[in-house]
Amino acid sequence: MKSKKRLDSGLKGFHVATIPKAPRSIRKAQLKKPDEDICAFELLASLAKKLLQESESSSASSNASGNDHVTIVKDAVKDGHHYECKPLKIEYLDQGTSEVSAVVSESASQICNQKCSLNEFPLVEDDEILERTSKTMDSGFSGKNAGDLKSAIFNSISANENRPSKVELEGGYPNVGKSCYNGMHNKFEEGLETKGLESGDPTELCVTYAALVNSEKDVKLTSCRDPVPFASFSRQRNDVKLGVRDDDDNLVRNTKSSNMSKVYRPMSRIGDRRLRKLLTSRYWKVAPTLKDFELSRAANGVASSAGGHQASLHSKDSNVKFSIKSFRVPETFIEISETATVASLKRTVMDMVTAILGGGIRVGVLLNGKKIRDDNRTLSQSGISSEDNMDSLGFTLEPSSVLAPSPVCSEDPPLMLPSSTPQLVQRSPATPAVDSGIPNSLSDPSPITNLTNRVESNHEAMTSHTVLTDTTAPDSRALVPVPAMDVDALAVVPVNQKIRRSEIAQRRTRRPFSVAEVEALVQAVEELGTGRWRDVKLRSFEHADHRTYVDLKDKWKTLVHTASISPQQRRGEPVPQELLDRVLAAHAYWSQHQAKQQGKNQPGTLKLEAQADRIGVPGM
DNA sequence: TTTAGGG
DNA sequence: CCCTAAA
Question: Could you tell me the superkingdom of the organism this chain comes from (predicted)?
C-alpha cells in the first residue's frame, strides 16, 4: 500500500483547468477541502472528463457480452501527468434503455488503508431504475452458469451505481471510493476514481474523488457533507434523499438536510423490551440499512412480494429475466458510547461502510436459501431451471472480504435478495449444488473486530430466506467496525450474537397464556399425560395457530414451576391456585405413571385421581 | 415431525 | 420462546 505521502506529492502541482460543469455542490465542496484533496479531485475531474469523452466515442462500439446486455469497456486512459494512471475505471449508465451499460476501467490510486472503499450507496427506488436493472439471462441453460449470473447481477449493480443519483457529487466521501464494488473489477491503487454518466449531458458527470484519507481522525470525512452512510441515497433532480429502513420495513425517507438522528434510529424490531434495554444501556445501537435489494417476480402472475419491494422475474421462452429493484444491505450494528460525539458516530458509521465495501462485494446466488457456490454449474444444473424455481431464488450481496486489511469483519451473505415466496421448490435432481467449497469471508480477525460468528451465517441466510415470508427478509450480518480513531470516545462493543440473530429470524411475539388457556391445557394434560403434546394441541388448541405443541409443552413446564414456587415469586397474570394445584397433581401423577403409561393409560384416568386428590386423598 | 430438555 | 438432539 502506498503511503499517503507519495500520493500527495504525486498530486501536487497538478491542476486541472476545468471541471466539466460540475454541480455547485462539488465546487463548493472543493473550497473546503484540503489542498491535496483538491488536487485529487481535480485530477479526478480531469480524468473523468477524458474518460467521458473517450467513452462516448467508444462505448457505442463496445458490446462484449451479448446476452447480458451489459457492456464492459476497459478504457485505458492515459493522462500525461507524472501521475501515472492505470486505466481508469469508469462506469456509466446508459439511460433511456432498459439495458445496463457499464464501462469500467481502473483508476490508479491508493487510498485507504482499507484498500478500497465505497462512496455511495445508490438507492434504487424508482421503476425507472428497476427497468434498467433488469437483466435477461439466457437461462436456456445454454451455457450460462452461476458465474455468469453473478456477473450479470453484478454488472447491474455497477451500472446503477453510476446513476446521477449518487451522492458523491455532494461532496463525496473521502476515503471512500466506490472502488471495490467487487474485488473483480477495481482495485484502488492511488485513490482516484472517476465515473461518468452517459447521460448525454456532461453536467451529469459524476466525479468521485477519493481523498487520500489516512485513517486518522481529522482528515476523515472532512469534506464529507453529511455522511449518512447507512442510508440509501437517491438523487432526483438536485435533491438528495436518503432513506433509512425502519424496523418494519418502512422506508423512512428524509431529505438530506434532515436531522441525523432520524437516520440513526435504533431498531425497534428488537421489540420494546429489548429496545428499552438497549436505550437504557450505555450504548446505542445502530442498525442502518444501506440499500434494498429485492426481487420480485411477474412470470406466473405470481406477484412476489417480500415486503413490498419487489423485483420481477419474467420468463420468455428460455430466457429468464431477473429484475432487481433494489438492494438491501445487511443490517449493521454499532454500539457506541453515549458520550461519543455525533461526529464520532458519523465517523464510525462511515468507517464501517467503508470497511464493508472496502473489501469489495460480490453477488451470491441462493436457491431455496442455500448458496450456490459452484460458479461453473449452469443454471439448470444448479436447480435454477425454470420459472417455477424463481420463487426460491435469491441473490445476495456479500463482501468479498478476502482482503486482509479490512477493518471489519464481514460475514457470509450480508445482504439478501429475498425472492417472493419462500416455498421450497423442486430442485434440480442433478445437482442440488451447495457447498462446493469457496470459502466465503476470510475476514481478518482483527482483535476487536472479529465478533461475528461465521458458522451461523449460512443458517441465518436460510432462515431469513425461508422463514420471513411476509417481510422483506433482511439478512443481516453484523459488521462491527473498528474505530480508527477516537478510540476513547468510540467504544465499539461487540454486538451480542443473539441480538443479531433475533434481527434476522424474528422472534415470535410473546403471547402470555390466558387463564382460560391454562385451564384448557391443564385439562388436556390431566387426561392425556405430559408426553403427548401433539395430542394436547389437537385436543385443546387445534385452532390456536400461535400455540404449537412445543409451546404447550413449555407452558406446562412453566406452570409446574410456577406452582412450585411461592405466590410472591410469581409474575404475570396470576393463575388461580386451583389450577396450579391441578398442575402439580397431574404432574405428580404422570410422573409416576410415566413408565408404563406409554399408550396404556386411558384418558380420564388422572382426572379421577386428581379429583380424588382434591377431595382428600393425600398425595398433593 | 414429535418429544424432551436445555438455554 | 428458541434451539436441538433424538427418536
Answer: Eukaryota
Q: In this predicted model, what pLDDT tens digit does every residue of A450-464 receive, in sequence order?
A: 222 222 233 223 222
Protein contacts on strand B: list nucleotides below 7 Å from a Cβ: 1-7
Mean pLDDT of A329-354: 77
What are the pLDDT digits (tens) for A416-440? 333 332 222 223 222 232 332 223 3
- The number of C-alpha atoms within 13 Å of A485 and in the hemisphere containing its C-beta is 17
- The answer on A312 and A218 residing in a single domain is no
Task: Determine if strand C comes within 7 Å of the CB of A508.
Answer: yes
Average pLDDT over residues A592-618: 44
Looking at A455, A477, A507, the residue that finishes a domain is A507
- Give the residue from A444, A475, A507 where a domain finishes: A507
The separation between CA A332 and the C-alpha centre of its own chain, rounded to angstroms, equals 8
Residues with Cβ < 8 Å from A277, sequence gap 6 or more? none
Are A147 and A175 in a shared domain? no
Whose CA is closest to A176, among A205, A219, A133? A219
- Nucleotides on strand C lying under 7 Å from protein C-beta: 1-4
CA–C1' span, A610 to C4, in Å?
34
A534 CA: nearest nucleotide by C1': B2
What mean pLDDT comes out for the span A147-168? Answer: 47
If 0-12 CB within 10 Å is exposed, 13-18 middle and 19+ buried, where does residue A516 land?
exposed
Residues A586, A487: one domain? no
- CATH number for the domain spanning A563: value is 1.10.246.220
Is A419 inside any structural domain? yes
Of residues A435, A510, A424, A433, the one with CA closest to residue A467: A424
Residue A531's nearest nucleotide, by CA–C1', is B3
- Indicate if A369 and A476 belong to the same structural domain: yes
Amino acid whose CA is nearest the C1' of C3: A550
Instruction: Report the b/e string of A419-445 with b at 16+ CB within 10 A.
Output: bbbbeebebbeebebbeeeeebbebbe
Report yes or no on A375 lying in a domain: yes
Out of A330-344, A491-505, A530-544, the most confident range is A530-544
> Could you tell me if residue A134 is inside a domain?
yes
A112 and A134 in a single domain? The answer is no
Examine the domain organization and report whether A141 and A189 are in the same domain: no
CB A530 within 8 A of CB A587: yes
C-alpha cell at A513: 397464556
Which residues of the protein have their beta carbon within 7 Å of strand B? Answer: A 530-535, 549-550, 553-554
Could you give the number of structural domains in chain A? 3
pLDDT in tens, A346-358: 888 777 777 767 7
Residue A302 falls inside a structural domain: yes
What pLDDT does residue A396 have? 67
User: Do A497 and A419 lie in a common domain?
Assistant: yes
Q: What is the pLDDT of residue A380?
A: 66
Q: Per the structure block, which three cell numbers stand in for A414?
A: 450480508
CA dist A134 and A98 (Å) reads 7
Name the grid cell of A620: 398433593
- Whole-number mean pLDDT of chain A? 45
Range of the domain at A9: 1-123+165-224
Q: Is the CB of A498 under 7 A from strand C?
A: no
Band of pLDDT at residue A44, cut at 50, 70 and 90: very low
Q: Find the residue closest to B4 using CA and C1' atoms.
A: A531
Q: Is the CB of A600 under 7 A from strand C?
A: no
3-state secondary structure of A349: helix
